[in-house]
Amino acid sequence: MQRRIAALIAASVIVTTGGAAQAAGESEPVEGYVPPYELIVAGEGRYKIKLKQSAIDRLDIQTAEMRTETKSRTISTGGLVFEIERSGADQSSDFFVGIPDNQLDYMITGGIKVAAGIGGITQEYLAAEDPDIRYLESRQQGYKFFRVTTNSPLLTNGQRVLVEAEANPEQELTVAPYSALIYDKNGGTWVYVAETPDTFLRHKVDVEFIDGDSVYLLDGPPPGTKVVTVGAAELLGTEYKVGY
Q1: Could you say which of 3.50.50.60, 1.10.1840.10, 2.40.420.20, 3.40.50.150 is the CATH number of the domain covering 2-69+174-240?
Q2: Among 11, 208, 218, 232, which residue's CB has the most CB atoms within a 10 Å radius?
Q3: How does pLDDT run across 15-60, given as a tens digit for each residue?
Q4: Mean pLDDT of the chain
Q5: pTM of the model
Q6: What is the architecture of the domain spanning 73-169?
Q7: Is-contact 145 85, C-beta < 8 A?
Q8: What is the annotated signal peptide range for this record (predicted)?
Q9: For residues 37 and 50, is the Cβ–Cβ distance under 8 A?
Q10: What are residue 54's phi and psi, to 5 degrees?
Q11: pLDDT over threshold 70, residue 121
């Protein structure tokens, strides 16, 4: 996509130097050429891009507004069986499955499943939050615990298990269209903010997860900010002086 920039914007002209333009593959500036954009130093290794109307028309740049949303999602993380209490004639057991706090940044809002396996056999168990096991959380600080009651022999004390839970983030996440997300050469994630209809600035974003056509962010431009959804790759090519 980035390689379209030569045809769409600069017709193989890659960068302005001292007010003159330098053609791809040539060492001398192209006399009299005026590129259809201006790069303005914005700091932190970024350039603000100001496009002329001819470039805007060619790129057909489109934008959409950032928004916020609290979205339920299934999270998966590792857990550990800490303690077993056997009770009843059927020798059913209460298993207390602990999850490190730093692996659970979401509020549990739905069902909790614990998957465990021995000898190639895997079984799922329903778990529950239980205020009666707060004593265990205070004793094993740094863990959150869930109770599983079963008479299955597949769960054992000290066993590592997989925990899946339906959860919501503890705060609203900023949402950007997936089409606005771009990656730099180091894998960093960005969007282009439309400061005005003809001026664009690259903004760093911290992606939490992607769901369909939406990107949920831990950090990024505030809600209501207009970001580029069509033409972002070409803008990146202009800023990085690639696409030739």
Answers
A1: 2.40.420.20
A2: 232
A3: 333 333 343 333 455 677 788 999 999 988 899 999 999 998 899 9
A4: 79
A5: 0.65
A6: Beta Barrel (2.40)
A7: no
A8: 1-23
A9: yes
A10: -60, -40
A11: no
